[in-house]
Amino acid sequence: MPEGFTAHAQHFWTITAQWLGWRPNEFWRATPSELKGALSEPKARSDAQGPSMEMIAKMLERERDG
Predict the structure, then answer these.
(1) C-alpha angle 7/25/31, rounded to 5°?
(2) 25-59 burial: b if 16+ Cβ within 10 Å, else e
(3) If you placed Cys at 30, which of 2, 17, 18, 34 could pair as Cys (CB 3.0 to 4.6 Å)?
(4) How do residues 13-30 score in pLDDT, each as one tens digit?
(5) What is the CA radius of gyration of the chain?
(6) Contact, 39 vs 16, CB < 8 A?
(7) What pLDDT, on the 0 to 100 scale, is given for residue 17?
(8) The pLDDT value given to residue 4
(9) CA-to-CA distance for 39 and 52, rounded, in angstroms?
């Protein structure tokens, strides 16, 4: 295993443990894409909308039914 990989893995493991509270198995099971997404700042969406009242009612009904 190249030294570069080991150093980078240790660095990213430290970040995910301290910032995200990941345990070792969570870190090692994550794909590079998942790691990048977890450590990236969320992107603001101008078209983002909350759920409609109808959608909330459906979720509540589904939750009541188990």
Answers:
(1) 70
(2) eebeebeeeebeeeeeeeeeeeeeeeeeeeeeeee
(3) 34
(4) 899 999 999 999 999 999
(5) 19
(6) yes
(7) 92
(8) 82
(9) 30
Structure-token pair, residue 49: 């909308």
Q: Which two tokens stand for residue 20?
A: 């995200």
Q: Which pTM was predicted?
A: 0.52
Whether residue 28 contacts residue 10, with contact meaning beta carbons closer than 8 Å, is answered with: no
Q: Quote the CA–CA distance of 13 and 23 in Å, as a whole number.
A: 9
Domain ranges of the chain: 1-41
Confidence at residue 25, expressed as pLDDT on a 0 to 100 scale: 92
**Backbone region of residue 49 per phi and psi (left: phi > 0; alpha: psi in -120 to 50; beta: other values):** beta
Task: Assign 22 to helix, strand or coil.
Answer: coil
Whose tokens are 């990941």? That residue is 22
Tokens (6 digits) for 12: 């990213």
